[in-house]
Amino acid sequence: RRWQPRVWALFEDPYSSRAARYVAFASLFFILISITTFCLETHEGFIHISNKTVTQASPIPGAPPENITNVEVETEPFLTYVEGVCVVWFTFEFLMRITFCPDKVEFLKSSLNIIDCVAILPFYLEVGLSGLSSKAAKDVLGFLRVVRFVRILRIFKLTRHFVGLRVLGHTLRASTNEFLLLIIFLALGVLIFATMIYYAERIGADPDDILGSNHTYFKNIPIGFWWAVVTMTTLGYGDMYPKTWSGMLVGALCALAGVLTIAMPVPVIVNNFGMYYSLAMAKQKLPKKKNKHIPRPPQPGSPNYCKPDPP
Q1: How many folded domains does the chain comprise?
Q2: Is residue 43 part of a domain?
Q3: Distance CA 263, CA 107 (A)
């Protein structure tokens, strides 16, 4: 019992002790290694063909059979071993935290702890099913390889070790109304300017070209949604652009409206970030200065001690 708070602080609070900082550094190291391994597994230099089969089948009943090539690929075993070491550390860390957690219900409700569990389980399932040769096992393995992307969610574990990331999370939650307002304004702008660019590009078009496929990229309004989003966010891929003077005028108005729309909620979000950052910095400095700012009251026997009057 008396060790529970110490072990919990060791894995939960990097600022509680020097040993906790070492544990935090180790966790940070394995997080970065795991993410690096995840990225390298998609590089063609670390992928090789493990099995290649050619079968004949008819795509349409009655048609002549065609050769269908089935290729199975696997990543470099070295990367799998590295990922295994990282998963062992994450498993140990997760078990220690859930064992010594003072409130296990709140622990299981935490989104970061759910991410930890979801990122760990696919590796063990994949290892357990890798030796099976049944079709169902292969289908499950294929699904697990697809859901490997959940490993990238481990980047959110960094919020335990960096105050700035926690401040950013609090800022995003506190600015929910501003983000919703921004999304509503952008949605209205996208709908309006996508409709305007569609009809603006029809001005002066060839009457015989009903779809406008010969002189414009905007063949319908849904295609204009993509252009409006890219233009209002000032991204500007350049894959679609107006070709008529009326379309260029609409494009200029769309860009200006996007700048004004995005700029409106930014001051509120920045103000929330500054407020939470100041609170976080004050909270970090408070334990070091609490003895200076909260003087002890005079004790009996001291020259400043005054005996209270009897009632």
Answers
A1: 2
A2: yes
A3: 38
